Amino acid sequence: MRRLLASGVKPLTPLFFVAPAFLIYTVFIVYPMVDSLIVSFNKWDGVSPQKEFIGLHNYAEFFQDQHSLEVLGRTLQWTIGAVVVPTLLGLGFAVVLNRRLPGRSVFRGVFYLSYTMPLVALGVMWSWIYNPQFGALNALLRAVGLGKFEAGWLSAPQSALWSVMATNVWYASGFPMVLFLAGLQTIPQELYEAAWIDGARPAQSFLHITIPSLRETFVVVIALLIINSLKAFDLIYVMTWGGPGRSTQVLGVWMYFNTFLFDKAGFGSAIAWIMTIVSLAIAIPYIQVLTREHA
Amino acid sequence: MAAVVNPKARIIATTLILLVLTAVAVIWVFPYVMLLLTSVKSQGFLLKHNIFALPDRMQLSNFKDAFTSAGLGTFVKNSFVIAIVKVPTGILLAALAAYSISKHGFRGRRAVYFYFVIGLAIPIQVTLLPLNILLKNLHMLNSLMALFFPYIAFGLPFQIMVMRGFFLTVPNELIDAARIDGSAEAQIFFGIMIPLAVSALAALVILDFLATWNEFLMALIFLQSPKNETLPLGLMYFQGQYSTRWSLLCAGVVLGILPVVIVYFALQRYFTAGIYAGAIKQ
What we know:
The complex is a heterodimer of chains A (295) and B (282). Chain A has 14 helices and 2 strands, in the order H-E-E-H-H-H-H-H-H-H-H-H-H-H-H-H. By secondary structure, chain A is mostly helical. In chain A, a hairpin with an 8-residue loop joins strand 1 (42-43) and strand 2. Chain B has 2 domains: 7-64, no CATH class; 67-279, Orthogonal Bundle (MetI-like fold). In chain B, 75% of the residues lie in helices and 0% in strands. Chain B has helices at residues 7-39, 43-48, 61-67, 72-103, 109-117, 125-137, 145-167, 172-180, 185-196, 198-214, 217-222, 231-241, 246-266, 268-279. Chain B starts with 6 loop residues before the first helix and ends with a helix. At the A-B interface, helix 1, helix 3, helix 4, helix 5 and helix 6 of A face helix 1, helix 4, helix 5, helix 6 and helix 7 of B.
Protein backbone atom coordinates (compact mmCIF):
# COMPACT_ATOMS: atom_id res chain seq x y z
CA MET A 1 0.00 0.00 0.00
CA ARG A 2 1.43 3.35 -1.00
CA ARG A 3 1.79 5.77 1.86
CA LEU A 4 1.02 9.41 1.37
CA LEU A 5 4.27 10.47 3.00
CA ALA A 6 7.42 9.04 4.49
CA SER A 7 7.12 8.36 8.19
CA GLY A 8 7.95 11.23 10.51
CA VAL A 9 7.37 13.89 7.88
CA LYS A 10 4.70 16.42 8.64
CA PRO A 11 2.21 16.77 5.78
CA LEU A 12 2.95 20.38 4.89
CA THR A 13 6.73 20.06 4.88
CA PRO A 14 7.19 18.86 1.28
CA LEU A 15 5.01 21.76 0.23
CA PHE A 16 7.36 24.29 1.78
CA PHE A 17 10.39 22.60 0.27
CA VAL A 18 9.04 22.31 -3.23
CA ALA A 19 6.81 25.38 -3.49
CA PRO A 20 9.40 28.09 -4.20
CA ALA A 21 10.98 26.19 -7.08
CA PHE A 22 7.60 25.03 -8.31
CA LEU A 23 6.16 28.53 -8.29
CA ILE A 24 9.06 30.20 -10.05
CA TYR A 25 9.20 27.43 -12.64
CA THR A 26 5.47 27.59 -13.28
CA VAL A 27 5.23 31.37 -13.46
CA PHE A 28 8.34 31.98 -15.52
CA ILE A 29 8.44 28.97 -17.81
CA VAL A 30 5.20 27.02 -17.92
CA TYR A 31 2.80 29.94 -17.99
CA PRO A 32 4.75 31.75 -20.76
CA MET A 33 4.84 28.52 -22.74
CA VAL A 34 1.08 28.16 -22.58
CA ASP A 35 0.62 31.84 -23.37
CA SER A 36 2.84 31.46 -26.43
CA LEU A 37 0.64 28.65 -27.62
CA ILE A 38 -2.42 30.84 -27.33
CA VAL A 39 -0.65 33.71 -29.10
CA SER A 40 0.33 31.34 -31.90
CA PHE A 41 -3.34 30.86 -32.72
CA ASN A 42 -3.69 34.58 -33.33
CA LYS A 43 -2.56 37.27 -35.67
CA TRP A 44 -0.89 39.90 -33.48
CA ASP A 45 1.88 42.47 -33.64
CA GLY A 46 2.92 41.95 -30.04
CA VAL A 47 1.83 45.34 -28.69
CA SER A 48 -1.68 46.34 -29.61
CA PRO A 49 -4.49 45.25 -27.27
CA GLN A 50 -6.30 43.51 -30.13
CA LYS A 51 -5.50 40.01 -31.22
CA GLU A 52 -7.20 38.30 -34.12
CA PHE A 53 -7.96 34.62 -33.66
CA ILE A 54 -6.98 32.63 -36.75
CA GLY A 55 -6.67 29.10 -35.44
CA LEU A 56 -3.92 27.04 -37.01
CA HIS A 57 -3.34 29.50 -39.82
CA ASN A 58 0.12 30.54 -38.60
CA TYR A 59 1.24 26.93 -38.65
CA ALA A 60 -0.20 26.43 -42.12
CA GLU A 61 1.53 29.59 -43.27
CA PHE A 62 4.82 28.31 -41.91
CA PHE A 63 4.70 25.14 -43.97
CA GLN A 64 3.65 26.97 -47.08
CA ASP A 65 5.97 29.97 -46.87
CA GLN A 66 9.07 29.46 -48.94
CA HIS A 67 11.33 31.42 -46.62
CA SER A 68 10.18 29.41 -43.62
CA LEU A 69 10.69 26.11 -45.39
CA GLU A 70 14.20 27.19 -46.30
CA VAL A 71 14.75 28.08 -42.66
CA LEU A 72 13.61 24.58 -41.75
CA GLY A 73 16.05 23.08 -44.21
CA ARG A 74 18.88 25.18 -42.88
CA THR A 75 18.01 24.20 -39.35
CA LEU A 76 18.25 20.58 -40.40
CA GLN A 77 21.64 21.28 -41.96
CA TRP A 78 22.76 23.10 -38.84
CA THR A 79 21.49 20.36 -36.54
CA ILE A 80 23.20 17.57 -38.47
CA GLY A 81 26.46 19.51 -38.43
CA ALA A 82 26.08 20.47 -34.79
CA VAL A 83 25.36 16.91 -33.71
CA VAL A 84 27.26 14.49 -35.92
CA VAL A 85 30.65 16.19 -36.02
CA PRO A 86 30.97 17.06 -32.32
CA THR A 87 29.77 13.58 -31.38
CA LEU A 88 32.36 11.88 -33.58
CA LEU A 89 35.11 14.27 -32.56
CA GLY A 90 34.14 14.04 -28.91
CA LEU A 91 34.14 10.25 -29.08
CA GLY A 92 37.51 10.28 -30.79
CA PHE A 93 39.02 12.64 -28.24
CA ALA A 94 37.56 10.61 -25.38
CA VAL A 95 38.81 7.29 -26.66
CA VAL A 96 42.30 8.66 -27.18
CA LEU A 97 42.38 10.56 -23.90
CA ASN A 98 41.11 7.60 -21.94
CA ARG A 99 44.52 5.99 -22.12
CA ARG A 100 47.34 6.95 -19.85
CA LEU A 101 48.98 9.59 -22.00
CA PRO A 102 51.39 12.26 -20.87
CA GLY A 103 49.66 15.61 -20.58
CA ARG A 104 46.18 14.22 -21.09
CA SER A 105 44.53 16.65 -18.68
CA VAL A 106 46.04 19.49 -20.68
CA PHE A 107 44.52 18.09 -23.86
CA ARG A 108 41.17 17.63 -22.13
CA GLY A 109 41.31 21.21 -20.94
CA VAL A 110 42.16 22.52 -24.40
CA PHE A 111 39.27 20.77 -26.10
CA TYR A 112 36.72 21.59 -23.44
CA LEU A 113 37.74 25.19 -22.77
CA SER A 114 35.65 26.82 -25.48
CA TYR A 115 32.48 25.22 -24.23
CA THR A 116 32.73 27.29 -21.05
CA MET A 117 32.86 30.60 -22.90
CA PRO A 118 30.12 33.01 -23.84
CA LEU A 119 29.16 32.29 -27.43
CA VAL A 120 29.02 36.01 -28.08
CA ALA A 121 32.71 36.35 -27.27
CA LEU A 122 33.52 33.39 -29.50
CA GLY A 123 31.35 34.85 -32.24
CA VAL A 124 33.15 38.19 -32.09
CA MET A 125 36.51 36.42 -32.11
CA TRP A 126 35.68 34.20 -35.05
CA SER A 127 34.08 37.03 -37.02
CA TRP A 128 37.48 38.64 -36.85
CA ILE A 129 39.27 35.41 -37.79
CA TYR A 130 37.01 35.03 -40.81
CA ASN A 131 37.53 38.64 -41.88
CA PRO A 132 38.69 38.58 -45.52
CA GLN A 133 41.42 41.23 -45.28
CA PHE A 134 42.50 41.32 -41.67
CA GLY A 135 41.51 37.93 -40.36
CA ALA A 136 43.79 35.11 -39.33
CA LEU A 137 42.25 32.43 -41.54
CA ASN A 138 42.92 34.10 -44.87
CA ALA A 139 46.32 35.25 -43.60
CA LEU A 140 47.13 31.67 -42.71
CA LEU A 141 46.08 30.42 -46.13
CA ARG A 142 48.22 33.07 -47.77
CA ALA A 143 51.17 32.19 -45.56
CA VAL A 144 51.15 28.51 -46.49
CA GLY A 145 50.69 29.19 -50.16
CA LEU A 146 47.01 28.24 -50.28
CA GLY A 147 46.09 31.82 -51.10
CA LYS A 148 43.65 30.77 -53.79
CA PHE A 149 41.34 29.40 -51.11
CA GLU A 150 40.91 32.81 -49.57
CA ALA A 151 37.25 33.72 -49.34
CA GLY A 152 34.68 36.00 -47.81
CA TRP A 153 33.70 33.31 -45.37
CA LEU A 154 30.86 35.09 -43.65
CA SER A 155 29.97 37.46 -46.48
CA ALA A 156 29.18 34.87 -49.14
CA PRO A 157 25.77 33.17 -48.88
CA GLN A 158 27.15 29.78 -49.88
CA SER A 159 29.79 29.65 -47.18
CA ALA A 160 28.28 31.70 -44.36
CA LEU A 161 26.32 28.96 -42.63
CA TRP A 162 29.12 26.41 -43.04
CA SER A 163 31.60 28.88 -41.52
CA VAL A 164 29.42 29.46 -38.48
CA MET A 165 28.87 25.71 -38.22
CA ALA A 166 32.62 25.18 -38.18
CA THR A 167 32.94 27.62 -35.30
CA ASN A 168 30.17 25.76 -33.51
CA VAL A 169 31.98 22.43 -33.91
CA TRP A 170 35.11 24.02 -32.45
CA TYR A 171 33.03 25.34 -29.57
CA ALA A 172 30.97 22.27 -28.80
CA SER A 173 33.16 19.20 -29.30
CA GLY A 174 34.50 19.26 -25.76
CA PHE A 175 31.08 18.59 -24.32
CA PRO A 176 30.48 15.13 -25.83
CA MET A 177 34.12 14.38 -25.07
CA VAL A 178 33.51 14.86 -21.36
CA LEU A 179 30.38 12.72 -21.39
CA PHE A 180 32.08 9.94 -23.35
CA LEU A 181 35.10 10.03 -21.05
CA ALA A 182 32.80 9.49 -18.12
CA GLY A 183 31.02 6.69 -19.92
CA LEU A 184 34.28 5.01 -20.92
CA GLN A 185 35.38 4.94 -17.31
CA THR A 186 32.50 2.65 -16.48
CA ILE A 187 33.55 -0.08 -18.92
CA PRO A 188 35.39 -2.83 -17.04
CA GLN A 189 38.92 -3.50 -18.23
CA GLU A 190 38.31 -7.26 -17.98
CA LEU A 191 36.08 -7.14 -21.04
CA TYR A 192 38.95 -5.88 -23.16
CA GLU A 193 41.41 -8.30 -21.63
CA ALA A 194 39.13 -11.24 -22.27
CA ALA A 195 38.62 -10.15 -25.85
CA TRP A 196 42.38 -9.79 -26.31
CA ILE A 197 42.92 -13.30 -25.06
CA ASP A 198 40.32 -14.51 -27.50
CA GLY A 199 42.35 -12.96 -30.30
CA ALA A 200 40.29 -9.84 -30.97
CA ARG A 201 42.07 -6.90 -32.55
CA PRO A 202 41.62 -3.36 -31.14
CA ALA A 203 39.21 -2.38 -33.89
CA GLN A 204 36.97 -5.32 -33.07
CA SER A 205 37.09 -4.54 -29.37
CA PHE A 206 36.09 -1.01 -30.15
CA LEU A 207 33.15 -2.02 -32.29
CA HIS A 208 31.86 -4.82 -30.12
CA ILE A 209 32.67 -3.69 -26.60
CA THR A 210 33.18 0.07 -26.50
CA ILE A 211 30.36 1.22 -28.71
CA PRO A 212 27.62 -0.97 -27.24
CA SER A 213 28.67 -0.11 -23.68
CA LEU A 214 28.34 3.57 -24.52
CA ARG A 215 24.78 3.20 -25.71
CA GLU A 216 23.24 5.22 -22.89
CA THR A 217 25.88 7.92 -23.27
CA PHE A 218 25.08 8.14 -26.98
CA VAL A 219 21.41 8.69 -26.20
CA VAL A 220 22.23 11.45 -23.76
CA VAL A 221 24.83 13.11 -25.98
CA ILE A 222 22.74 13.08 -29.12
CA ALA A 223 19.54 14.17 -27.40
CA LEU A 224 21.26 17.07 -25.65
CA LEU A 225 23.08 18.16 -28.80
CA ILE A 226 19.89 18.12 -30.85
CA ILE A 227 17.96 20.04 -28.21
CA ASN A 228 20.72 22.64 -28.04
CA SER A 229 21.10 22.97 -31.77
CA LEU A 230 17.38 23.57 -32.32
CA LYS A 231 17.49 26.71 -30.21
CA ALA A 232 20.80 27.97 -31.62
CA PHE A 233 20.85 31.73 -31.62
CA ASP A 234 23.84 33.49 -30.07
CA LEU A 235 26.58 32.52 -32.50
CA ILE A 236 24.58 33.18 -35.63
CA TYR A 237 23.14 36.45 -34.35
CA VAL A 238 26.56 37.84 -33.54
CA MET A 239 28.45 36.50 -36.54
CA THR A 240 26.00 37.00 -39.39
CA TRP A 241 22.69 38.31 -38.03
CA GLY A 242 20.82 35.80 -40.16
CA GLY A 243 22.54 36.94 -43.30
CA PRO A 244 23.94 37.47 -45.82
CA GLY A 245 20.46 37.68 -47.21
CA ARG A 246 18.76 34.98 -45.19
CA SER A 247 21.38 32.33 -45.66
CA THR A 248 22.01 31.79 -41.97
CA GLN A 249 18.46 32.05 -40.71
CA VAL A 250 17.68 29.02 -38.59
CA LEU A 251 14.58 28.39 -36.48
CA GLY A 252 15.91 29.97 -33.30
CA VAL A 253 16.91 33.14 -35.11
CA TRP A 254 13.87 33.18 -37.43
CA MET A 255 11.59 33.12 -34.39
CA TYR A 256 13.34 36.16 -32.92
CA PHE A 257 13.17 38.13 -36.16
CA ASN A 258 9.49 37.46 -36.72
CA THR A 259 8.42 38.13 -33.15
CA PHE A 260 10.55 41.11 -32.27
CA LEU A 261 11.56 42.70 -35.55
CA PHE A 262 8.82 41.94 -38.04
CA ASP A 263 5.95 42.49 -35.53
CA LYS A 264 4.55 39.07 -36.40
CA ALA A 265 4.15 37.83 -32.85
CA GLY A 266 1.57 35.19 -33.70
CA PHE A 267 3.66 33.71 -36.47
CA GLY A 268 6.81 33.90 -34.34
CA SER A 269 5.07 32.09 -31.51
CA ALA A 270 4.04 29.35 -33.91
CA ILE A 271 7.70 28.99 -34.91
CA ALA A 272 8.63 28.79 -31.24
CA TRP A 273 6.08 26.05 -30.67
CA ILE A 274 7.26 24.08 -33.68
CA MET A 275 10.73 24.22 -32.12
CA THR A 276 9.30 23.13 -28.79
CA ILE A 277 7.38 20.16 -30.17
CA VAL A 278 10.41 18.82 -31.98
CA SER A 279 12.57 19.42 -28.93
CA LEU A 280 10.15 17.66 -26.59
CA ALA A 281 9.88 14.73 -28.98
CA ILE A 282 13.65 14.33 -28.94
CA ALA A 283 13.77 14.63 -25.17
CA ILE A 284 11.54 11.66 -24.51
CA PRO A 285 14.16 8.89 -24.90
CA TYR A 286 16.57 11.04 -22.88
CA ILE A 287 14.12 11.46 -20.04
CA GLN A 288 13.32 7.77 -20.14
CA VAL A 289 16.99 6.99 -19.67
CA LEU A 290 17.06 9.41 -16.77
CA THR A 291 13.94 8.47 -14.87
CA ARG A 292 14.53 4.76 -15.04
CA GLU A 293 15.76 4.71 -11.45
CA HIS A 294 13.34 6.23 -8.96
CA ALA A 295 12.94 6.65 -5.23
CA MET B 1 41.69 -0.35 -24.39
CA ALA B 2 43.83 -3.47 -24.64
CA ALA B 3 47.52 -2.76 -24.89
CA VAL B 4 49.47 -3.91 -27.86
CA VAL B 5 51.66 -6.69 -26.57
CA ASN B 6 54.82 -5.74 -28.44
CA PRO B 7 56.37 -2.91 -26.32
CA LYS B 8 58.14 -1.28 -29.25
CA ALA B 9 54.98 -1.18 -31.30
CA ARG B 10 53.23 0.26 -28.32
CA ILE B 11 55.68 3.14 -28.02
CA ILE B 12 55.32 3.87 -31.72
CA ALA B 13 51.55 3.83 -31.44
CA THR B 14 51.57 6.13 -28.44
CA THR B 15 53.97 8.55 -30.11
CA LEU B 16 51.87 8.69 -33.24
CA ILE B 17 48.74 9.32 -31.23
CA LEU B 18 50.48 12.07 -29.29
CA LEU B 19 51.62 13.72 -32.51
CA VAL B 20 48.16 13.71 -34.04
CA LEU B 21 46.63 14.86 -30.78
CA THR B 22 49.12 17.70 -30.49
CA ALA B 23 48.43 18.80 -34.04
CA VAL B 24 44.70 18.90 -33.39
CA ALA B 25 45.26 20.68 -30.09
CA VAL B 26 47.35 23.31 -31.86
CA ILE B 27 44.49 23.93 -34.28
CA TRP B 28 42.13 24.20 -31.32
CA VAL B 29 44.30 26.67 -29.50
CA PHE B 30 45.24 28.73 -32.56
CA PRO B 31 42.30 31.17 -32.29
CA TYR B 32 43.21 32.01 -28.68
CA VAL B 33 46.83 32.51 -29.57
CA MET B 34 45.87 34.95 -32.30
CA LEU B 35 43.46 36.67 -29.94
CA LEU B 36 46.06 37.23 -27.23
CA LEU B 37 48.71 38.23 -29.73
CA THR B 38 46.52 40.84 -31.35
CA SER B 39 45.19 42.20 -28.09
CA VAL B 40 48.62 43.48 -27.07
CA LYS B 41 49.45 45.16 -30.35
CA SER B 42 48.79 48.73 -31.31
CA GLN B 43 46.44 49.46 -34.16
CA GLY B 44 49.28 51.05 -36.10
CA PHE B 45 51.43 47.96 -35.76
CA LEU B 46 48.56 45.76 -36.94
CA LEU B 47 48.03 47.76 -40.07
CA LYS B 48 51.71 47.84 -40.97
CA HIS B 49 52.70 44.26 -40.29
CA ASN B 50 51.68 40.71 -40.96
CA ILE B 51 49.07 39.40 -38.54
CA PHE B 52 51.46 36.78 -37.21
CA ALA B 53 54.26 39.25 -36.46
CA LEU B 54 55.36 39.57 -32.86
CA PRO B 55 54.98 43.11 -31.56
CA ASP B 56 58.11 45.11 -30.67
CA ARG B 57 56.34 46.41 -27.61
CA MET B 58 53.16 45.32 -25.87
CA GLN B 59 50.34 47.82 -25.68
CA LEU B 60 48.69 46.74 -22.47
CA SER B 61 46.68 49.95 -22.40
CA ASN B 62 44.32 48.21 -24.80
CA PHE B 63 42.86 46.35 -21.86
CA LYS B 64 42.41 49.46 -19.78
CA ASP B 65 40.82 51.21 -22.73
CA ALA B 66 38.44 48.32 -23.32
CA PHE B 67 37.44 48.32 -19.68
CA THR B 68 36.94 52.05 -19.19
CA SER B 69 36.42 54.16 -22.27
CA ALA B 70 34.71 51.38 -24.16
CA GLY B 71 32.57 50.75 -21.12
CA LEU B 72 33.08 47.05 -20.66
CA GLY B 73 33.58 47.65 -16.94
CA THR B 74 29.90 48.35 -16.38
CA PHE B 75 28.85 45.25 -18.27
CA VAL B 76 31.26 43.10 -16.30
CA LYS B 77 29.94 44.51 -13.05
CA ASN B 78 26.34 43.78 -14.02
CA SER B 79 27.16 40.22 -14.99
CA PHE B 80 28.87 39.70 -11.67
CA VAL B 81 25.96 41.09 -9.71
CA ILE B 82 23.34 38.92 -11.35
CA ALA B 83 25.57 35.86 -11.11
CA ILE B 84 26.41 36.30 -7.43
CA VAL B 85 22.80 36.84 -6.46
CA LYS B 86 21.13 34.32 -8.71
CA VAL B 87 23.44 31.31 -8.55
CA PRO B 88 23.25 30.52 -4.82
CA THR B 89 19.54 31.31 -4.69
CA GLY B 90 18.63 29.11 -7.60
CA ILE B 91 20.70 26.18 -6.41
CA LEU B 92 19.28 26.44 -2.91
CA LEU B 93 15.74 26.31 -4.26
CA ALA B 94 16.65 23.39 -6.48
CA ALA B 95 18.26 21.50 -3.59
CA LEU B 96 15.21 22.06 -1.40
CA ALA B 97 12.87 20.74 -4.05
CA ALA B 98 15.16 17.86 -5.00
CA TYR B 99 15.58 16.76 -1.40
CA SER B 100 11.86 16.73 -0.86
CA ILE B 101 11.24 14.84 -4.07
CA SER B 102 13.77 12.19 -3.18
CA LYS B 103 13.39 11.81 0.57
CA HIS B 104 9.98 12.99 1.72
CA GLY B 105 8.23 10.22 -0.12
CA PHE B 106 5.12 12.21 -0.92
CA ARG B 107 2.62 10.90 -3.36
CA GLY B 108 3.02 12.38 -6.82
CA ARG B 109 6.72 13.00 -6.41
CA ARG B 110 7.56 11.32 -9.69
CA ALA B 111 5.10 13.51 -11.53
CA VAL B 112 6.59 16.60 -9.93
CA TYR B 113 10.07 15.44 -10.88
CA PHE B 114 8.97 14.82 -14.44
CA TYR B 115 7.34 18.27 -14.50
CA PHE B 116 10.68 19.86 -13.70
CA VAL B 117 12.88 17.65 -15.86
CA ILE B 118 10.79 18.33 -18.95
CA GLY B 119 12.13 21.87 -18.70
CA LEU B 120 15.44 20.63 -20.08
CA ALA B 121 13.85 20.36 -23.51
CA ILE B 122 12.01 23.68 -23.51
CA PRO B 123 13.70 26.22 -25.80
CA ILE B 124 14.00 29.71 -24.36
CA GLN B 125 12.38 31.16 -27.46
CA VAL B 126 8.94 29.82 -26.56
CA THR B 127 8.85 31.87 -23.34
CA LEU B 128 10.34 35.14 -24.57
CA LEU B 129 7.37 37.22 -25.67
CA PRO B 130 5.06 36.38 -22.75
CA LEU B 131 7.96 36.84 -20.34
CA ASN B 132 8.64 40.23 -21.85
CA ILE B 133 5.06 41.26 -21.21
CA LEU B 134 4.97 39.70 -17.75
CA LEU B 135 8.16 41.44 -16.70
CA LYS B 136 6.88 44.71 -18.04
CA ASN B 137 3.71 44.34 -15.97
CA LEU B 138 5.80 43.50 -12.92
CA HIS B 139 7.88 46.63 -13.55
CA MET B 140 11.03 44.54 -13.62
CA LEU B 141 11.87 45.10 -17.25
CA ASN B 142 15.16 46.77 -18.09
CA SER B 143 16.72 46.02 -14.75
CA LEU B 144 18.82 43.11 -13.58
CA MET B 145 15.71 41.92 -11.72
CA ALA B 146 14.26 41.04 -15.10
CA LEU B 147 16.80 38.28 -15.44
CA PHE B 148 16.66 36.99 -11.89
CA PHE B 149 13.53 34.83 -11.95
CA PRO B 150 13.77 33.55 -15.54
CA TYR B 151 17.41 32.57 -15.01
CA ILE B 152 16.47 30.68 -11.85
CA ALA B 153 13.58 29.00 -13.62
CA PHE B 154 15.70 27.75 -16.48
CA GLY B 155 18.39 26.48 -14.15
CA LEU B 156 16.00 24.40 -12.07
CA PRO B 157 15.54 21.34 -14.31
CA PHE B 158 19.20 20.43 -14.50
CA GLN B 159 19.95 21.34 -10.90
CA ILE B 160 17.00 19.40 -9.53
CA MET B 161 18.03 16.43 -11.64
CA VAL B 162 21.58 16.46 -10.29
CA MET B 163 20.62 17.09 -6.65
CA ARG B 164 17.93 14.44 -6.67
CA GLY B 165 20.47 12.00 -8.06
CA PHE B 166 22.76 12.86 -5.20
CA PHE B 167 20.16 12.74 -2.45
CA LEU B 168 19.03 9.32 -3.61
CA THR B 169 22.45 8.01 -2.62
CA VAL B 170 22.07 9.21 0.95
CA PRO B 171 20.97 6.31 3.15
CA ASN B 172 17.53 6.71 4.69
CA GLU B 173 18.83 5.47 8.02
CA LEU B 174 20.75 8.70 8.40
CA ILE B 175 17.57 10.71 8.05
CA ASP B 176 15.48 8.41 10.18
CA ALA B 177 18.01 8.62 12.99
CA ALA B 178 17.92 12.40 12.87
CA ARG B 179 14.13 12.39 12.95
CA ILE B 180 14.08 10.06 15.91
CA ASP B 181 16.42 12.47 17.64
CA GLY B 182 13.77 15.11 17.19
CA SER B 183 15.37 17.18 14.45
CA ALA B 184 13.06 19.28 12.34
CA GLU B 185 13.09 18.79 8.59
CA ALA B 186 14.78 22.13 8.06
CA GLN B 187 17.50 21.18 10.55
CA ILE B 188 18.05 17.89 8.76
CA PHE B 189 18.29 19.65 5.44
CA PHE B 190 20.62 22.47 6.38
CA GLY B 191 22.55 20.65 9.05
CA ILE B 192 23.10 17.25 7.43
CA MET B 193 22.16 17.22 3.77
CA ILE B 194 23.82 20.42 2.62
CA PRO B 195 27.19 19.60 4.18
CA LEU B 196 27.03 16.13 2.64
CA ALA B 197 26.24 17.54 -0.76
CA VAL B 198 29.06 20.04 -0.92
CA SER B 199 30.85 18.64 -3.97
CA ALA B 200 27.66 18.24 -6.00
CA LEU B 201 26.67 21.77 -5.00
CA ALA B 202 30.11 23.07 -5.95
CA ALA B 203 29.85 21.54 -9.40
CA LEU B 204 26.41 23.09 -9.85
CA VAL B 205 27.67 26.47 -8.69
CA ILE B 206 30.38 26.46 -11.33
CA LEU B 207 28.12 25.29 -14.13
CA ASP B 208 25.41 27.74 -13.15
CA PHE B 209 27.85 30.63 -12.83
CA LEU B 210 29.01 29.97 -16.36
CA ALA B 211 25.50 29.59 -17.74
CA THR B 212 24.50 32.88 -16.12
CA TRP B 213 27.62 34.70 -17.26
CA ASN B 214 27.18 33.49 -20.84
CA GLU B 215 23.45 33.99 -21.29
CA PHE B 216 22.61 36.25 -24.20
CA LEU B 217 19.11 36.00 -25.66
CA MET B 218 17.07 36.93 -22.59
CA ALA B 219 19.50 39.71 -21.73
CA LEU B 220 19.17 41.00 -25.28
CA ILE B 221 15.40 41.28 -25.05
CA PHE B 222 14.76 42.19 -21.42
CA LEU B 223 17.51 44.79 -20.97
CA GLN B 224 17.57 47.99 -22.93
CA SER B 225 19.80 50.57 -21.26
CA PRO B 226 23.56 50.07 -21.40
CA LYS B 227 23.91 50.75 -17.69
CA ASN B 228 21.91 47.62 -16.90
CA GLU B 229 23.21 45.28 -19.52
CA THR B 230 25.37 42.22 -19.06
CA LEU B 231 28.68 41.32 -20.60
CA PRO B 232 27.49 39.33 -23.66
CA LEU B 233 25.47 42.35 -24.75
CA GLY B 234 28.46 44.55 -24.06
CA LEU B 235 30.64 42.44 -26.31
CA MET B 236 28.08 42.67 -29.05
CA TYR B 237 28.05 46.48 -28.86
CA PHE B 238 31.79 46.40 -28.68
CA GLN B 239 31.95 44.59 -31.97
CA GLY B 240 29.58 47.07 -33.56
CA GLN B 241 31.39 50.11 -32.32
CA TYR B 242 35.01 49.09 -32.73
CA SER B 243 34.63 46.75 -35.64
CA THR B 244 37.82 47.89 -37.31
CA ARG B 245 39.93 48.52 -34.24
CA TRP B 246 41.07 44.95 -34.05
CA SER B 247 43.51 45.28 -31.20
CA LEU B 248 40.94 46.95 -28.98
CA LEU B 249 38.33 44.41 -30.04
CA CYS B 250 40.59 41.51 -29.15
CA ALA B 251 41.45 43.09 -25.81
CA GLY B 252 37.75 43.39 -25.09
CA VAL B 253 37.11 39.76 -25.91
CA VAL B 254 40.01 38.72 -23.69
CA LEU B 255 38.48 40.69 -20.82
CA GLY B 256 35.15 39.09 -21.52
CA ILE B 257 36.43 35.55 -21.34
CA LEU B 258 39.02 36.03 -18.61
CA PRO B 259 36.65 35.46 -15.66
CA VAL B 260 35.46 32.28 -17.29
CA VAL B 261 38.99 31.01 -17.89
CA ILE B 262 39.94 31.74 -14.30
CA VAL B 263 36.89 29.99 -12.90
CA TYR B 264 37.44 27.05 -15.21
CA PHE B 265 41.08 26.44 -14.51
CA ALA B 266 40.74 26.95 -10.80
CA LEU B 267 37.92 24.47 -10.44
CA GLN B 268 38.41 22.12 -13.37
CA ARG B 269 37.90 18.84 -11.62
CA TYR B 270 34.46 19.74 -10.31
CA PHE B 271 33.22 20.32 -13.85
CA THR B 272 33.47 16.83 -15.15
CA ALA B 273 31.93 15.54 -11.93
CA GLY B 274 28.99 17.86 -12.34
CA ILE B 275 28.31 17.12 -15.96
CA TYR B 276 28.62 13.41 -15.47
CA ALA B 277 26.39 13.37 -12.43
CA GLY B 278 23.78 15.41 -14.17
CA ALA B 279 23.71 13.98 -17.61
CA ILE B 280 24.23 10.29 -17.04
CA LYS B 281 23.18 8.14 -14.15
CA GLN B 282 25.78 6.20 -12.19
